[in-house]
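Memo to structure team: turn this sequence into structure tokens by end of day. - J.P.
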Amino acid sequence: MPILIGTSGWQYRDWRGLLYPPGLAQNRWLETYASAFDTVENNNAFYRLPAPELFERWRDMTPDGFVMAVKASRYLTHIKRLAEPEEPVERLMNSVRGLDGKLGPILLQLPPTLRAEPERLDRCLRAFPKGVRVAVEPRHTSWWTDETRDLLTEHGAALCWADRLGRPVAPLWRTTGWGYVRLHEGAANPRPGYGDQALRTWVGRIRDAWADDAYVYFNNDSGGAAVRDAIRFAKFGRAAGLRVSRTPEPEPART
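Reply from structure team:
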């Protein structure tokens, strides 16, 4: 499996004329996106968990081999704050089962105000079915302890490597055999794009940590920066000897 490269979401109106032809109906955006990328991170599920039928529709409109990572509902992470996770995890898994073999990792992005609660995280990770990949993105510094690292390693969960302004915002722990990277905001001009050096640095980190089993998502969607940066990241990855997934070709022009 190559390094899978995509974006965090696909429903952005300012991608018209960049990734989506002008006038293309919105209900065809995912189909068009999936003709150029092999993976996407579904952020919509965080705000409102779609019904299984919608996940089935997304499964059917994407090609064989396409992978959809899913950001867990905020009900689990931000409202319940990981407490009593069994019911919300079951509800989540009942919905995403519509993706069948196209389901990628589940992302647990924790609120920045949630201080370390190892017992809650342990119980939450135990609630997921065996074989489901889970990535965890803590955002409070109290989580950066050996206890957290050991807990993720025990469950085979990936610590999400997150970037903001070209720098890691979390320890670069390798807690399992696969990686999950989110690039939120670059510092290049125009914002929020990434510069060449930042992208090459991330290519090197990923190459040194995982040979060919990682998911990389660009979350700097404004103005199409995520699309352009994903393409450039893939180019640098290939130059560094990585096996990387499809990206649009040629690179879309800036608008």
